[in-house]
Description:
- There is one protein chain.
- Helices cover 30% and strands 22% of the residues.
- It is of the alpha+beta class.
- It has two domains: 32-80 and 212-285, no CATH class; 85-208, no CATH class.
- Helix 2 (60-78) packs across helix 6 (217-235) and helix 6 (217-235) runs antiparallel to helix 7 (264-285).
- The longest helix is centred in the C-terminal third of the chain and has 22 residues, at 264-285.
- It starts with 7 loop residues before the first strand and ends in a 9-residue tail after the last helix.
- Residues 169-175 have low confidence and may be disordered.
Amino acid sequence: xxxxxxxxxxxxxxxxxxxxxxxxxxxxxxxxxxxxxxxxxxxxxxxxxxxxxxxxxxxxxxxxxxxxxxxxxxxxxxxxxxxxxxxxxxxxxxxxxxxxxxxxxxxxxxxxxxxxxxxxxxxxxxxxxxxxxxxxxxxxxxxxxxxxxxxxxxxxxxxxxxxxxxxxxxxxxxxxxxxxxxxxxxxxxxxxxxxxxxxxxxxxxxxxxxxxxxxxxxxxxxxxxxxxxxxxxxxxxxxxxxxxxxxxxxxxxxxxxxxxxxxxxxxxxxxxxxxxxxxxxxxxxxxxxxxxxx
Length: 294
């Protein structure tokens, strides 16, 4: 279960970017996640959600499942989290970023909502046959040092970046060891700080995603387009005839219809809109260019 007993949240909104909470909206830039009723009214208006062969009607539960699959697809393709997700990760110690970049850490997952823990833990986390965990009281490795959340800067959280502003002591050059860590581990960290890189040094627990009722309208539109595309692609081919005729004693009547191509134009429009929305969302929430150093 996610633990939020100790957390530090971003002070601004993720959308609009760095907006003041409670500010004047003007119009609904953010909203609740797309519902089945809205999907029917806004993306499937006038579409009979029924099989032309079996007369079976598509249920709301089926539509909800399609919305969930659409959300999962958007998260994968746009590399964002829609609903909140708490993650645990280990990041390496980078001496250059530590000394010259206020120990910048790239959490990769966006948009960042909060930080629950930033610490240095041992690698003594083990599992026994009875499924119990060892290595610290929470089974995640012994706690060597827990960075105060007050020291973490979240001003670049919209990019998935955090900084530890007061960790560097520019006067003594001792960095975190001389400023904060005391006890038997201090000598060990003094040695570590002379190394250029240490794998899995930082342990971070954080939450990414959008707050409740704060999903950008453009992301909801993309969800609706994906779900509508799947539904129309499922229903359209069931119209297996283009025309039919009836003739009795020399008198005939014919009826022509679009058949499987009934929703072809709408499907084409949805595909085009999906491409446009994905580009906009990726440009807003993803890092197009990642820079590092050797």
